[in-house]
């Protein structure tokens, strides 16, 4: 396409003389409109359509977008002006990319040019100048804006019009400047007031912005005044700035060259921090506009705590230097904080490197101080100026980009994290270089030839570091002055120029090895090994009492453990040197010396101790003791002395353990003596020092572990070790000479093989069972803790009703800010839940009612309750509340009035007894009292006639008089009450209808009531004798005895009701909302029955209300006022997950596989409530009334979508506004109601909005927002809709933009924050990045991009599958107060919260996962936080101390692969940096989990991979090494220990079975049992008992039962647990055990950890092929191996062992094996449907035969899947491959053992038998190869020959078998045994070939391996598919399967079968 020249359209503009047409660029943003290009036409009917202003080429999108948007806005009213705006946009686009080389530029220009051609003549007005028309339109919008801009309490519509006017005027001003001559342009500028940029985030700081209430707050004004205090700064001319500095940030920008957007962002950030700090300070200042010193000092302390610690650690003086003058000091503090924020805000990926930022700040602060002081350089004799500064983006180009380039190159070397960790530096390595004084050799300006910047290139030439970096234009001048500037700081020294060398790893090398587990927790493993040795020694001595331990012989044997200890320390020293070898270049010399000294000392002790023991054994020196002592004499040897000296090295550590304060001081102190003392015990690194807890915490977790270990060792001694001692001795005595195979080591004495086989599983269980004991004590201690802290205080609706009247007082204590009179809340006792009587806050009860009603309203808006239920739950707001008279919800009073009527009607006796009966039930008394008062009120309003009013008053006075005199029963006949009740109900119904035509019915009802009261109820009715009441004749007509009657009519109308007087009653009643609400409530009180006692019916609503009520009785901090609370922010990372379900995704409610059908069946009550709220009957009526968007939202709010999360998080804002309203409200405001005040009082509403903006922000970090926008993805519009629905929501994303440099496009990356204004996306900040930010793991990098746009002092991290509730959001300000309270030694830095899993309501699997997660996030984390003090960050929804974490590396770590579980590393980092992590259960957040087995397995695999990476990480190593012993145990068993214990439990099963296989096949077991009759079955049973616990899921079940019992009752817990077992929960948890162990073990050996998306959607059927791909290697192969072991063991042990013993030993292993085989099919929906089974079989055959290749996914071809399944081996090292080969050797034991048991071997034990078996294997392989070659050569052209060839081979094989059976006695059993022998051998060969793939991949052997592997997979598939097909053929199995799989749904009467059956259609289409 030829180049487009913009001459013709521009020539069509009519210019006046002196006009020109040059264009400039500008930027703005907005919402999407449809692309529409109309046909050019000159007809009058031409209607301009919008031109797409959203999908624009990135080259110039930000520059032209606002012009196109304004053109769309003006298109209909001012089409010519719109045309001129589009012309202007075209010119800008053309100037920016004249060659159209950018992506999509040519297409855009063509479409815009075509549109301009159409509009040119149509929009032209004859005789009118374009400029004149432009000016007229511009002035109109400008004047409108200027007139209204000062108002800040505008309605939303007026505000939108004002913003539109501003945007249009700004754009038209730009166009006018372009087309007018310079003189006119200057005049235009002088007369214009709104040409400046006015986008803002929270604070409109720029002049000319719309006034906002937030800028009127005194704290904001004070903060702004401090920021704008520029007195005393150097003149602006020194920095080449025209005009004075606007504020301190303006000064810093021009001084150091920060980006303008970064400056604007951090300016607002700091102002909000200062203002919020000010609100928490004591108000003792003289002026409210003056910022207090306290807040600034607190910010200084928070921001620079890490920096000052870093300076002390490196023995450098801090460069934060403050003047003595107080006024100047505050300015300096603000400058230093601002400088740090600007560095941090522009640091991009460097934010993960906090000490690198400290280094940068250190030098820039030094320069800042020099500039402020006007210092003169001693070398140049010029003023001190920044090394990098004075130019735009100077800091980015010269500082950030240079270090970023190093990170980028290292990441490139990592090959996506697959390369060995030792060959590339991650974020931690680069950051930790700045923990060494060597970092100052980098200098400032930084020396690019320093080794830090050198990156070792892999497979490419070494890059030129200098040329690869982006530098500013002033770099030449910088080079000239470099040497002079280096001298200005004394610590920067020059080194001789030398060839740069790669520094290598820093302080730690992540090496993939199982030895890492020993190295991290060496003290624990040493302790367990030594304890095992001691237990065995004690068991061998068979002691009678503990006193015998002091016997000299016994004691001497026991202390031989120190010899073992010496060898273990030698191993540890060797490992330390080996694992740190690749970090030797960056290691300090003292640390190298320490490693060598440790190795030398360990070597010496390994020599000294054994020599001493050998020389002094049994050679005692004894001393007698006093008579009567327990020990008669003390004996010792020289070895004992040596052991005592050996122990002295640990004595200091033991002493310091009991005095943690001293230990902490020694670790963190920089005194030489302290450094010397800590040199030996810990490495000299910056983190991990001073982590000791206070004395009480240490005692608590020490006591916990003493209890655990005591039980563990008693059990191990009694049931594991001691029972094996006697059998072991007997085994050693028996000499077995006859073996049943060829014994390779016949001369080995004492039957060592048998002893190893017997002891190995016991030893493995010994090392594993501590995890079980931890689980037991976790259950006990966690349960006690929960009881003591009042969890489960209100578990049921009945308990809620009984305690509801105490909720207002509890609410008053917890959620209403205390006044100065009220102290903190207290309880009467530890187990009491009654608050002490405290003076109520003003209007406390009324505030509770307002909040309760808001909660109920939101339950209705969420469709959890119906309209009727809402009426039953609401509490009326009236002036009575201020006198503490509460009208309780009707659901509490349900049936109470009717019951009271029944009691009164049938009562006979004294009136006092009746009163007691009614008042005994407080709610019955409330109901009676309120009904009476309501009736009085209704009659008072209804009856207006004077005589009637007097009658009513007299009757009521009479009733009340008799009540007071307790003579009501004597003077009133209460048996008439039911009839009176019916009439009053009738009256209430008439009043509610309010039909004017029913006035006569109202009169009749009133007359009936009066007649009943006076004639039937009142015994003595003399008071009414003076009045005459109407009577009825026989026909039912009312007549009067005379004219002076009640309700008389002035003019009788006999056609209607002649006796009704319109003036006597006021009917219909006034249309007043409150009045009708009272009448409706009165009617409900009279009529509601027992059914209301089950309100709310929805289970989720019940749970939420119960938890909220329970939480009010827990211990939480007092709530501050919203004005004084700590500000916070929520951040949610989002990738490509669903935002809303589209209508297409929802499908039709008639389609049984659609999401909407699924939702309707799973949430039937909520669907009904939704239709009721919408006023529709079904979906069709919804569509007819255009409410499909509401339908989308309803469905999306029930899935795991982003819109659900955003709705929940925005409840925080609603809660804050509500609480702020209550803080400010007077009685009149409360009576009006929150909604009324919000709608009617604009000024108050603006104040509430301003306060909410100050205290809360919500940012979504949308990783794919830019790409979704470019591709017109519907999710982009969904995100825009979210921001429209929630105007305060912000979206942060990375924009990848093309810039044309020298005619070629270059990618430029920017961090952007956007909002939506008037439906248009608008950029707030755009901060340029040094390159692509996604270098590490995606989620933490995504969070890091958005964190600079967050605000406040606390930060909550929320995933996009979470939810929140208004009632929980109300407690947020209480929670944030926890940051101000100490947890032991220090205040918390992370607040942990509990989660509610909301996805457990349908399938059994979802239920299991829900309970498992619930037990972990409650009872598990409760124990971790207290007493164990090792809770970390386990994902969301924890709340971070934001300032603490942004100065210490952020809220997660991002290094590729190693930080796969990025969240937990934030907890590690916080703990290592002396933070504290607490856990609080009074606030919960909703969370979704995976609901199908495949999703759950992927999640478990991801977590197992993450735990493996934690195992080899530096964080885990430091925690394991530097925690004290007991806290280290807590850390191990609550992190990687769980996974490693699971792994070794499974390994223990293999070890046991292979040991038994060895004993059986070798004949050892037969010989030992038959000859010696050794009965060691019980010992083996004991060894396997602990494994059975894990296999049966009881390990997970114990905490689960305890937590359910606490919160729902123990009977419910027991029922649920039994039901779970019936629904095969044990099968599920055993299967999950296999997932964990496979991925943990494989990743630790080979690597290959990766993120696995699970896609948490609804549960549907998974095909057989999919299940096989997922579980073949992780479960099926292992299960077949175990089954093979069990079968072989069973075959050859029968002759000498009972079947019962076999069952007792192996039942758990059979269960686990079958579980691993069957679980994927048992938990597969519709897994036994015959039609689906047939479909699965076809798909399986297609998959197994499909050839792989490039582009063919693994779900399409077995070949591709097999290739991907070995991905973990590609980057595996030699050691890991060798280990894989060695492990594969176990498959050869079958062949070696079984061939000697064949009949054909004729009992020969010659080694030749084994050799002949290999010949048979080779023959079989050759036979298979011959068939394959024949197929290749003959099958195509010689079909008949190929068939003859196969027949010949078949007959030949049969002949050989027949011949061998005759000559050599070959039997059928032999053939079966040969299969058992040769199949494992073939599989072992496949495993070895895979490990050796690099060597054989290009040979024919690899093709043969692949063919053999496919046959194995096909065979395993057939074996698995057979039982499924048989069961699917039986119809009853399908129904039974659906019942146990979806029992939860069936219990709720939900329709599941249609959902499962419906998915078939989708698969077939």
UniProtKB/TrEMBL annotation:
Cell compartments where the protein resides: Cell membrane
Catalytic activity: [(1->3)-beta-D-glucosyl](n) + UDP-alpha-D-glucose = [(1->3)-beta-D-glucosyl](n+1) + UDP + H(+)
Transmembrane intervals: 524-541, 553-575, 595-615, 636-659, 698-719, 772-791, 1531-1553, 1589-1606, 1618-1635, 1704-1723, 1807-1824, 1844-1864, 1871-1892, 1912-1933
GO cellular component terms, semicolon-separated: 1,3-beta-D-glucan synthase complex; plasma membrane
Main location: membrane
Membrane topology of the entry: Multi-pass membrane protein
Domain of life of the organism encoding this protein: Eukaryota
1,3-beta-glucan synthase component FKS1-like domain location: 331-447
InterPro entries the UniProt entry points to: CALS1_helical, FKS1-like_dom1, Glyco_trans_48_dom, Vta1/CALS_N, Vta1/CALS_N_sf
Residue numbers spanned by region Disordered: 473-496
Molecular function in Gene Ontology: 1,3-beta-D-glucan synthase activity
Name used for this protein in its record: 1,3-beta-glucan synthase
Species of provenance: Glycine soja
Organism ancestry: Eukaryota, Viridiplantae, Streptophyta, Embryophyta, Tracheophyta
